Amino acid sequence: MINIASVVGVSPEMLNGVYGATKAFVIALTHSLQHELADKGLRIQAVLPGATATDLWENAGLPWQKLPSSIVMSAEDMVDAALTGLDQGELVTIPSLQNGEDWTQFEAARKSLAERFGNSQPGLRYRSAQKVA
């Protein structure tokens, strides 16, 4: 199963809020499906393209040809990279990310943080002065 998200799902301030939120949902859904279906033998992937040379840009009012050419990937290259990522077993494929270790470190930090979410008391920074003393 290949879900098409966007790098904006990780960095929503790059574009408008609704687009970023929907793409973040696709990433979260992909992670959840992988967790829930891992033992079923399904391959699940989220593809996070950056700027890609498609009509989406023109439909949004900014043709991709007006973007810096250094950030726009051809649709063919994006699809080829996405399928290569799927073949390599990646859960998340970011075709424009040059160093895959960057994503690996991001995911490790996210998972480490999540391990610290379950506490019966608020963090010290959220407690009133009377409760801390």
Describe this structure in words.
The protein is mainly α. It has helices at residues 17-37, 55-59, 75-87, 100-114, 129-132; strands at 2-4, 45-47, 92-93. It has a three-stranded parallel β-sheet with strand order 1-2-3. The radius of gyration is 19 Å and the shape is globular.
Give me the strand/helix succession.
EHEHHEHH
Into which percentage range does the β-strand content fall?
A: 5-15%
Oligomer: single chain
> What is the molecular shape?
globular
Per DSSP, the total helix count is: 5
Class by helix and strand content? mainly alpha
Poorly predicted regions: none
Radius of gyration: 19 Å
Mean pLDDT comes to 90
Euclidean distance between termini CA atoms: 53 Å
Quick gist of this model?
The chain has 133 residues and is mainly alpha-helical. It has five helices and three strands, in the order E-H-E-H-H-E-H-H.
Identify the notable features of this structure and list them briefly.
globular; three-stranded parallel β-sheet; 133 residues; mainly alpha; single chain
Helix and strand arrangement:
Blueprint: E1 2-4, H1 17-37, E2 45-47, H2 55-59, H3 75-87, E3 92-93, H4 100-114, H5 129-132
Parallel strand pairs: 1-2, 2-3
